[in-house]
User: What shape does this take?
Amino acid sequence: MKSWSIRLGKLFGIDVFIHWSFWLLIIWIVYLQFSGGGGFFEALWASGFVFALFACVVFHELGHALMARRFGIGTKDITLYPIGGVASLEKMPDEPGREFLVAVSGPSVNLVIAALLWAYFSVTGSFPDPAMLESAERISDVPFLFTLFTANLIVAAFNLIPAFPMDGGRALRALLSTFLDRGLATRVAASVGQIIAIVFIFLGFYYNPWLILIGLFVFLGAGVESAGERTKSELSGLTVNDALMKRFTGLSPFDTLSTAVDALLNSQETDFVVLDNDEPIGLLTRNEIIKGLSEKGPEARVSSYMNRDFFVVGPDLKLADFLQEVVAHDSDVALVMQDGELVGLINRENVEERLMVQRALKQ
Ligand SMILES: [Zn+2]
Assistant: This one.
């Protein structure tokens, strides 16, 4: 379940969600039509167009997801936001050729849609007359499918800008990493992206303020991408064993939540293993403790709120892979087991602490 989103359905086994903020876009579009002198018909036309365009965006995201699936990478879901869609891939492929294919398959879908519409116009002889386009005052003056055709071309072009976090940025990084080390390729691609972003911001002041917004978005995205890549290279060589918590508090399934609260408040720990005869049977996180307290009070049993569906990793798992598992399992914490024995707990914070130590040692 995803908060603040409505599930639209499943396509190719992937859940498609629509985020609440998407409706703000529809409200805004409707408002624009009415305030611009258009009536109900214009508003309906414009919102219909947004839905059609976002259907194309879903196909764009499916393009990424299905290509990733060919390389054995799953996709948790696809969510539509007002600025576009996001396919939550479990990870990006490390191999440059595959990363390139996953990145370009999204925009390719929009190009294919545009080509199909072009073919339709040609076959039916309904290609719009450029003069009519220039004289159009309202959105409904231009044929619906022609607006959709143009929009798909814009979506493809926009996503192919060679700058993070656009698909084009990832494609560029993939191309560069065929002959550069991945960290360097990321830095070069991020710098190219930031230069493009600055040009956009500069042009925005003269032509269109939207360019300023896009420029800022790209500039920040490039920063995030190179920071992420830096973390990845710092983590290489480290395993779960380097970051796990060997000292942890175990709870019994028959303990009350007030015992769990004591453990929570008297230590730095936020996640507790629930043990039955030394056998881990569940995991109780801070969120579950708080939820239980508000629903049933301090006398509720640990067993009614623990998570039985916890995930387990081995001490030799690479920390970078652990972070990917965290995303895939939608859980911040894992039990560390070796030869059937519980040896500790590990969460995202432990990894961050290990990184801080690593950076301090380097200086
Ligand atoms: Zn894309």
Observations:
- Residues 60, 64, 106, 159, 167 surround zinc ion (CB under 6 Å).
- The chain is about 60% helix and 15% strand.
- The first strand starts at residue 5 and ends at 11.
- The radius of gyration is 25 Å.
